[in-house]
Amino acid sequence: MTRRVLRERAAAVLRANWTGTSTVPSRALYPHQWSWDSAFIAIGLRHLSPLRAQSELATLLAAQWGDGRVPHIVFNDAVPLDAYFPSPDFWRSTTAGRGAGAPAAVQTSGIVQPPVHALAAWLVHRADPGLSRARSFLARVHPRLAAWHHYLLSARNAGGAGLAAVLHPWEQGMDNSPCWDAPLSRVEPAEPGAFRRADLDHGAPEDRPTDADYGRYVRLAAEYRDRRYADGDGLGAFAVEDPAFNALLIASERALARIEDALAMEAGDEVPPGKAQLKESARERRERTETLTEALVARLWDPRHALFLCRDLRAPGPAGELVPERGVTGLVPLVLPALPPGTAAALVRTACGPHFGLGGPARLVPSYDLRGPAFDPRRYWRGPAWFNTNWLVLKGLRMYGEHERADGLRDALLDAAVTSGFAEYVDPRTARGSGARGFGWTAALALDLLHDDGRSRRDGLPEEEVWA
Predict the structure, then answer these.
(1) What is the pTM of this model?
(2) pLDDT confidence of 111, banded at 50, 70, 90?
(3) What's the Cα-to-Cα distance from 224 to each of 93, 172, 218, rounded to whole Å?
(4) Which InterPro entries is this protein grouped with (predicted)?
């Protein structure tokens, strides 16, 4: 298939999922706006319409809470309540979230998702800097992004080492990964009659989380809601420091520093008070990326696994304990340019080794250990390959000079996107699609990969200078 045809098909998916202000992941299964989906979708949309990409992010950030959190779902009030669960009447954001500053004009969830947004905003700006400046795009999103990062770095610093903790598997985005099995085992599932799973109306049960796991998700979310979405010492039964979530926070801190540099430059030669503050804030963010990377390595790197692992903060012991499950979350820190010597090389060996099989038995990076006892090539995040995590691993491979491996993964992702009908996720070995078809970020990231032509290699630039 030609690049032109692939581009047209991916663009058709994004047009079909566009609501006028944002893009749904899937018209049937996910009929609202999702937080990290919109960030990845904006990254792809910038190649079609930088204006639409700006709108995508602006719409999401308009639903930000007063405490800085960006909710993981922004609900479309034109969609029937029974089209998706948990629905707005479960989250009760406008009442239960009032003390945390939930917006009154729109219904949202009360939990968050990985912070890809500053990175997406910077890439969208770079796609058309003239349009961005004309519409004051960076100036409009900057204070919201700064508040979002402040929330994660302060309210979610449950472990005390600077890393952000997730309070629910949905917050990390890899919903039912086996990495959560041990932390979730302490959670009593909600009664089966207390909720109805709308996801099973659109997906095969063997592709989706089990009823028991779903009941635990509902219990955790309901308890957080009943605490009025309060963070702090009252964190619930599930609190995990996750490597991918924190790696994306670090990458977005770097991007937010670049946004502040750009805004300071736009201020011209005069030195208004805001310009000096922006330059100082950018400097502090760069320093913070270094300290956060050090904390990530100190707390989550496991040399025996040659992989970053999740830390269960609720396990016995003063610092909790590492969860010894191998998930793709542990490979995502490859996107960070300042890993210690040897760590990136070890991650590449792990990705290509027997547990993830890239370049061997696996065409794409699986979401979970191919040799793990819980591996299932069809069931959601328990083995299938996802396009966003593979895109991130690919960016990391490029950053660390693994261009041949990155090229092979890029070709495999584009082929899988087309042959699966832009599926939500695929079997990592055969690329057989599962979940929703015409999935938003699959199409968007396929568009971005069409522009991944090895530019950093050709121009002799470090990959991070091209990407972020």
Answers:
(1) 0.95
(2) very high
(3) 11, 16, 10
(4) 6-hairpin_glycosidase_sf, 6hp_glycosidase-like_sf, Glycoside_hydrolase_63, MGH1-like_GH
